[in-house]
Amino acid sequence: MLERRKGPLSKLYPLTKLVFLFCAVILAIVFDWRFGYLVMVPLTLFLAAFSGNFFSFLKKFIGALLLFVIFVFLFKIMLDKSDSQILFQWQFIVIRIQGLIDGLNQTSVLVVMAAVVLLFFETTEVEDLMISLQQKKVSHVVSYIVLSTLQMIPDMVKRSKVIMQAQQARGIETEGNIYLRMRAFFPSLGPLIISSISELEERAITLEVRGFSASVEKTFLKDIQSRSIDRILSLGFIFLSMALIGWRIYVWLF
Amino acid sequence: MSKAAKYSTMAILLIPIGIAINYVGGQIALILKLPVFIDVIGTILVGALAGPLFGAITGLVTNLILGITAPTWIPYAIVNVAIGIVAGLCAKKGWFKTVKGAFITSVLIWLITQLTANPVTVYLFGGVTGSGSSFITSFLIATGQSLWQSVITTALITETVDKFISVFIVFFIIKAIPARTLLKFPLAKHYLD
Amino acid sequence: MAVLELKDVTFKYQLAKETILENISLSIEKGEFVALVGRNGVGKTTLCSIMRGLIPTFHTGTMSGQVLLNGIDISDMSIGDLALHIGFVFQNPFVQVSGVKQTVFEEIAYGLENLGVERSEIIRRVDEMLVQLNIGHLKLKHPMQLSGGQSQRVALASVLVMDPGILIIDEPTSQLDPQGTEEVFETIRLLKERKKTIILVEHKVDWVAEYADRVIVINDKHIVKDASASEVFSDPMLLETGNNLPQVALLALRLKESGKTDIENIPTTLDEAYQQLKGRIDHGSH
């Protein structure tokens, strides 16, 4: 699950990219669909290409949003009671322009959020993100929880498959009618949970023995630094966002 | 040596396990082709053993980590957090020890799910949940119901049974944990006499 | 001054009806290699937990008596801070991983990151440890993809790199196959060569007799013998406490009992046995 990231964007300090992420989402909330669809989507696609991750990014982007976007448009069209211009009509299906605009506006924030989050993780290693957070005084416990989970999930998935096979060998049915399948759930999950919890004690001892709770400031084997380009970009994003929001407020007031 | 430190390492370690259980629970339900999406067992378990704060963290981080590959999960973190808090509070009242208590907990968790998830679905997602339940919602809208009505009805159908199942699974699991291990969790005293 | 001292320690687990250890007093000097033997369930692991400060805070119960580390009462120190001074490796090889690192190198470095050691120093110490314990070839492997023996060696390395004053090793080979056992004992031999202060709990007395300077025998809640390894392992009384004797010692004792030969000193290690036999062969037979 943790592959090494490549490309120029992966060299940026993680928090810089995080600033970009938050600014983009906030601007998407403030502005309407045109910001999201006409600015951010092309921008993130371009950045993904620039970073050498285009197809991987595109695949995840479409995968995450396609169903969702289709349904939103579907609902908006079905609920559109306006008398705006009709774009398409066939039997009882009526698509008016208002419905489409509603759909675009409703989905804009989420599309932007999905785009920047996916781009962020295409160009950033979770480990680096955790180190940069710790450098800004976020507790090492947060880092531990996230990184430990990322290793534990694939491990548990593997173990659950083994347990399910063992249970099948014992005669627990995993196919058939719904009651049979429901009854297979607990014997599949139960042993997994119990064994994980029993191991907890020794894992806790191991962590303590490695100095997890030692009251010393932690250091990092990996060298992650914020450079001048990071400071310039971060400040740039923030000022640009504030300027745009300020302009929007101005337009709204007058 | 403070008690807080001892408790916290065991409780801290419970969180990644809770998150992984949330994930695996969902996977197993998928493999078994169950119509319910059971993905909060871990949150409830951590809340029940370590309290509302740890339950809430489990819920939050679950959705954030899921969000890495599927960002549409991120806003629903508030639901998972709420479930963790409620589970923790109910555990503190000793409700995970008896069947009656577990039933009350199930109802409360079901209730808080409806209260937190539906607004997110309507306001942020325009009524779409991104799972198969959206077919039900679209059917309801097509029959003339409002967006709110459709979303609430859909949630009632799809998000009720799994909450009861989840709470009772946690109930049975806690009964199966040996006393010497339970002793090391913050809420131990509610389960041991 | 003794590195570790226990003064009249008595302990009962919270959920237990009876005490498990009573009036335990012992003292360990720097550089000593002490083995702890006793039958299963007698309280050896409990004693390890007490020495590591895990009792009575992590494993709750009632404890009286004192544990002193270099003269300081460890109940004044937190479990986390004790990691600087006491290393601990135990039975289950696969659970002693941090869970957050993807290579053995980073895994070994983890303890040093937690102790706030400076980066170049971390790299230096980890490299040194890889060489010292002959695990350089495991450097880039994932910590969860090692064999039992390899895992235990990495666990030992990860703890040793933190340079603790004392190392407690609790039945490291119980869950290993013969090859793993040999690998681990080879590592322990390296530790002994470096004159580390070690407390080892082990059932495989043949191995223990080779390495331990001193043996403490626990039976019926107390220390029943605390003497040099050759003294403890040549005494048939040990069998009554539910423990084994090294095979060479058993053999020598049987021979002595049968009256067929006169043996004065019961050998406890292969080396001693060899020397004695050689002596007899060189002098001709009687």
Structure description:
The complex is a heterotrimer of chains A (254), B (193) and C (286). With 254 residues, chain A is mainly α. Chain A folds into 2 domains: 11-124 and 224-253, no CATH class; 137-209, no CATH class. Helix content of chain A is 73%, strand content 4%. Chain A contains 8 helices and 2 strands; from the N terminus they run H-H-H-E-E-H-H-H-H-H. In chain A, helix 1 (14-30) runs parallel beside helix 8 and helix 5 (126-135) packs antiparallel against helix 6. Chain B is elongated. In chain B, helix 4 (77-92) packs antiparallel against helix 5 (99-124). Chain B has one domain (3-109, 162-190). With 286 residues, chain C is α/β, with parallel strands linked by helices. Chain C has 2 domains: 4-245, P-loop containing nucleotide triphosphate hydrolases (Rossmann fold); 246-286, no CATH class. Chain C is 37% helix and 21% strand. Chain C has helices at 44-51, 79-82, 104-114, 119-132, 148-160, 178-193, 205-211, 229-233, 237-240, 247-258, 270-282; strands spanning 4-13, 21-28, 33-37, 61-69, 72-73, 86-89, 166-170, 198-201, 214-219, 222-228. A 6-stranded mixed sheet of chain C has the order 6-7-8-3-9-10, sandwiched between helices. The mean pLDDT of chain C is 90. Classes of the chains: A mainly alpha (254), B mainly alpha (193), C alpha/beta (286). Chains in contact: A-B, A-C, B-C. At the A-B interface, helix 3, helix 4, helix 6 and helix 7 of A face helix 1, helix 3, helix 6 and helix 8 of B.
